[in-house]
Structure formats: structure tokens, C-alpha cells
From TrEMBL:
Gene: pheS
Enzyme Commission code: 6.1.1.20
Top EC group: ligase
Entry keyword annotation includes DNA repair: no
Subunit (UniProt): Tetramer of two alpha and two beta subunits.
Catalyzed reaction equations: tRNA(Phe) + L-phenylalanine + ATP = L-phenylalanyl-tRNA(Phe) + AMP + diphosphate + H(+)
Ligand binding (Mg(2+)): E254
GO molecular function annotations of the record: ligase activity
Cofactor info, note text: Binds 2 magnesium ions per tetramer.
One Pfam family here: tRNA-synt_2d
Predominant location: cytoplasm
Cofactor(s) of this protein: Mg(2+)
Native source organism of the sequence: Terrimonas ginsenosidimutans
Protein name as annotated: Phenylalanine--tRNA ligase alpha subunit
Length: 343
């Protein structure tokens, strides 16, 4: 009997020092000590050789040995599951994680960012204004007389509850609000969404995006306007593009002009985009009309300024080779995924 007790003590220290850092060794431990042909079972088999008067005492000792071995197994299992040694065990920490999908920038946003950042480098500050605007900031202050065709109910979305409110038809409201603040000089670049009551088609939409710019100070001239826009065009379309100004008319600028660049698709040879002219119109501009300055309490005898406005959709359609303006606002994930990841 004593030799069996000694043997049990030896087994105990063996079990106590056994390690099982991974699943395989853990299973080997279980089979060796706790399996149907394992050590615990065979030690239990010794009971039949124990004299009847010692059976109770021995039964307790063997039971304790069994519990000890089972506990050791549980401890090893826990350590293998949670410890740093668990690489390659039940949890494989070397597996790549679940992918987190990265979004992409909207092509309109990318085009807007490009335009705005070029003007920011020239000292223009980005400004934003409301999309629901009163008649004065959208029309009146801009020298648009009460019966000007641009105010036509047919062209503008009026707010039913308050006919003095419209969905802004250009981002000029933002510049008017900047001028009203009365802090001069002003150099702002104003991107945003605008609305026109138009039939939606592949080529036009009832809402789209614009960037407008405004510079007001003493002695601002048409030469400043041209130089600023030359710089913009070179940064935007490359230094080899040619530029031309054509006289035009806007109620809020005098004189007014439209600016063309040599066609960046055909290089000026003539194609469908430039309608065989070799030129593409990209923006309208001019010197701020004295009435507009006056409407914002700026003295037109002391201050002059230039303004310009351009659409974002058309350049974006051309740059990304898109053939339907409606794609920009349909949120079709198959369309949106094609653009640069937003990192
Ligand atoms: C175009 C032409 C233009 C302006 C916008 C402007 C704003 C103020 C005063 C004077 Cl507050 N002018 N904006 C001036 C000339 C042209 O836009 O074709 N836009 C898409």
C-alpha cells in the first residue's frame, strides 16, 4: 500500500509540472491522464487489490487524485485559451481581422476640394451659407430687379409656407452675407449646392453644385481678376492650356465675361465636347456691380471687387468620364465605389 501511495505522490508532481501550451498537447494530457485507458482509470483499478478495511481511506485518496488531475486539466485549458501562448491554439491571433470597409470620396466632393484648395493657396477663405434663402439675399441684393426672368416661379423653387423664401439658385447668397458683415477686405471662396426648377435628365438636374469667388478691396481691377483666373486654370488643367475671355452679361457684374479654356479633351483640335470649336466654357465672372456693393453698405467709390462662378458637375463628368449627371445623386454603391478611397 505504501508503494501505491508513493507512486501517487510521484504522479501528482508529474501532473503538477505538466504543460500543455496548445490544443494538441492539451488533448495528449487528457488522453494520458483522464482518458478511458488513462492513468486515473488505471489507478482507480487498484481499488480491487486494497484490503477491505482500507477501502474507505483509499477510496478518498484516489478520489482526491482524480479531482486533482481534473483540476490541473481545467487550469491548463484556461491558460491555453487566454494566455499569450494562445497563438496557434483555439484563437489564432495571427489571422487577419474582419475587414472594415473604407468609404470613398464623392466625385463632386473631390472636384470641389480641388477647386477650393487652389483658391485657398491664393488667400481665399472658404465660406458657407444657407440653402434656404430669403428673396433679398438670393435676388434683391444681387441687382436682380423684381421682374427679372431669373426670379420666375417656373425656374425657382419657392417655399410654400413662406413665398419670401427660396431654395438658393446660386451660392452668391453666401458672398452677400459676407459683405453684410462689414469687414473688409474680403477674399472668399464659396462652394455649395444650388437648386433650379428644371426637368431632370442625363444632362441637367434640379440641383447641382457651384463654386463662387469674391474679392473686394481698394483698387481691385479686372487685371487682378484675369491673373487670379489664369493661375486657377494652370493649376487645374495644366500649364499648356490656353485661355480666352468673351464679353458677357450678368446683372450683378459690370463688365462681365465668360472664360473658355482650350479643349482639354482634344487639345483644341475640335471634338464633341467642345462642339468642334476647340474651346470649353468653364466659368462666368466680372467686376462686382456698384449697386451690389451699395446694397451691402460698401462704398463703391472706395472699394471695387471681382466675382466669378463655376459649376462643378460638368468638369466632374468630363474628368471621370461619366455620361449621366443623375449618377451623382442616386447613391448607387456600384458607382460610388469606383472613386478614390477616402483616407
Ligand atoms: C456662372 C457665372 C457668376 C458671380 C457669379 C457674383 C456674386 C456676387 C456679386 C457679383 Cl455677391 N457676382 N457672382 C459673378 C459672375 C458670374 O457666375 O456661370 N456661374 C455658374
Amino acid at each position: 500500500m505504501d508503494s501505491l501511495l508513493q507512486q501517487l505522490e510521484a504522479y501528482k508532481s508529474e501532473i503538477a509540472s505538466a504543460t500543455a501550451p496548445d490544443e494538441k498537447q492539451l488533448e495528449e494530457f487528457r488522453i494520458k491522464y483522464l482518458g478511458t485507458k488513462g492513468l486515473v482509470k488505471s489507478v482507480m483499478g487498484e481499488m480491487k487489490n486494497v484490503p477491505a478495511d482500507k477501502k474507505k481511506e483509499f477510496g478518498q485518496i484516489l478520489n482526491e487524485f482524480k479531482l486533482f488531475t481534473e483540476q490541473r486539466y481545467e487550469d491548463l485549458k484556461l491558460a491555453a485559451d487566454s494566455g499569450p501562448a494562445s497563438v496557434g491554439t483555439s484563437i489564432d491571433l495571427s489571422l487577419p481581422g474582419d475587414p472594415i470597409p473604407i468609404g470613398s470620396r464623392h466625385p463632386i466632393t473631390m472636384m470641389k476640394n480641388r477647386i477650393v484648395s487652389i483658391f485657398q493657396r491664393l488667400g481665399f477663405a472658404e465660406a458657407e451659407g444657407p440653402e434656404i434663402e430669403d428673396d433679398w439675399h438670393n435676388f434683391g441684393a444681387l441687382n436682380l430687379p423684381p421682374h427679372h426672368p431669373a426670379r420666375d416661379m417656373q425656374d425657382t423653387f419657392y417655399i410654400q409656407q413662406n413665398p419670401d423664401w427660396v431654395l438658393r439658385t446660386h451660392t452668391s447668397n453666401t458672398q452677400i452675407r459676407e459683405m453684410e458683415k462689414g469687414k473688409l477686405p474680403i477674399r472668399v471662396i464659396c462652394p455649395g449646392r444650388v437648386y433650379r426648377n428644371e426637368t431632370v435628365s442625363a444632362r441637367s438636374h434640379c440641383f447641382f453644385h457651384q463654386v463662387e469667388g469674391l474679392y473686394i478691396d481698394e483698387n481691385v481691377s479686372f487685371a487682378d481678376l484675369k491673373q487670379t483666373l489664369y493661375f486657377f486654370v494652370k493649376e487645374m488643367y495644366g500649364k499648356d492650356v490656353k485661355v480666352r475671355f468673351r464679353p458677357s452679361y450678368f446683372p450683378f457684374t459690370e463688365p462681365s465675361a465668360e472664360m473658355d479654356v482650350s479643349c482639354f479633351i482634344c487639345g483644341g483640335k475640335g471634338c464633341n465636347i467642345c462642339k468642334k470649336t476647340g474651346w470649353v466654357e468653364i466659368l462666368g465672372c466680372g467686376m462686382v456691380h456698384p449697386n451690389v456693393l451699395q446694397n451691402c453698405n460698401i462704398d463703391p467709390n472706395k472699394y471695387t471687387g471681382f466675382a466669378f462662378g463655376m459649376g462643378i458637375e460638368r468638369p466632374a463628368l468630363l474628368k471621370y468620364d461619366i455620361n449621366d449627371i443623375r449618377l451623382f445623386s442616386e447613391n448607387d454603391i456600384r458607382f460610388l465605389r469606383q472613386f478614390t478611397p477616402a483616407i
